[in-house]
Amino acid sequence: MGIDVTRLDADARDRWNRRVERAPEAMPVHRHEALAVIADATDTTLHLLGGFKGEEPVGLLPVFAKRRGPLTFVYSPPTQVRIPYLGPLLLNTEQLKQRKAEQWHA
Q: For residue 66, which of 49, 82, 47, 51 has the smallest C-alpha distance?
């Protein structure tokens, strides 16, 4: 069974924040409120992506989209902000064996 990546509802900010809290490498900037401020400040559209293995969430990735003419550019994080890393955030890594967790991080 593979990992299905889906776009999460913007209305599901509480669920997003609960999932972010479960990620060991998450920072306060990963919270929905902070991501919304970044999107407003950079004039981009925020898209919240989630990776699921069946019903179980295994990863999160916030991406920011900006249209320029006929093209759409996608960033994570936007180039205008000085945030070094926004994802992907891996969830439930404590349940994995060490070898499998290291493969996911590679």
A: 47
Tens-place pLDDT, residues 59-82: 899 999 999 999 999 998 888 888
What are residue 7's DSSP bridge partners?
49
Find out whether 25 and 89 touch, Cβ atoms under 8 Å. yes
Residue 85 backbone dihedrals phi, psi, to 5 degrees: -155, 135
Cβ(50)–Cβ(19) below 8 Å: yes
Per DSSP, the three-state class of 78 is: coil
What pTM was computed for the model?
Answer: 0.81
